[in-house]
Give the backbone structure.
Amino acid sequence: MDFLEINKVLSNKVRIDILQWLKNPEKNFPPQINVPDFRDGVCVCHIQNKTGLSQSTISHYLTLMHKASILIATRHGKWTYYKRNEEEISNYINFLKNNL
Amino acid sequence: MDFLEINKVLSNKVRIDILQWLKNPEKNFPPQINVPDFRDGVCVCHIQNKTGLSQSTISHYLTLMHKASILIATRHGKWTYYKRNEEEISNYINFLKNNL
DNA sequence: CTATCATATCGACATATCTCGATTTATTGT
DNA sequence: ACAATAAATCGAGATATGTCGATATGATAG
């Protein structure tokens, strides 16, 4: 758990928004088209639509969040789905609680 | 409590170090010279010495941390003392716990 | 096997952050 | 009043981040 890397990733409004939206995909995103449910998260295109930023920017952001281990990526066919890595997010918050 | 501003301030190793050192001034800094104790925190020069960065950089960092409300500044004569704002730090951690 | 679509990567430019030395401001001791 | 000291502010150059459009990659459908 690289605390500093996570903090860098979280020092951006859009990325914070994404993390919060992913807490409740049913509420924040339209229904999935190519998979039956949100088990593996939300596809890049839905996230991109909601932010209004370019495809490359959002793909880049999601990659950053994935590298910092706060998101889990799953590929189904040509779609990539991202969901929260709840375990790492908890570790991060506990680390803050104990060490900040 | 501007969560994003605090996160930006905390996405830097040196500033994190400073915040952690200030948890225990007695242990991390030499005794105060111009005030009897660490009640109001630690003076800029002690913090600067410990980091090894320039005076202007550390003054700038401490100002950032103060503006983000995680440090409290007190002036005694020509010295400025900085200490943690425990209330705001708690608010920040609670916000993370509840909203991240 | 080719066209198409979703995503990732690349290259570039604009803006922000890091960090310094120099200068200014505030305070104190002479 | 003046010199000395601590801290804050200023100006600048180097590095990092934000963001885009263009291109590459990988998967699928025909």
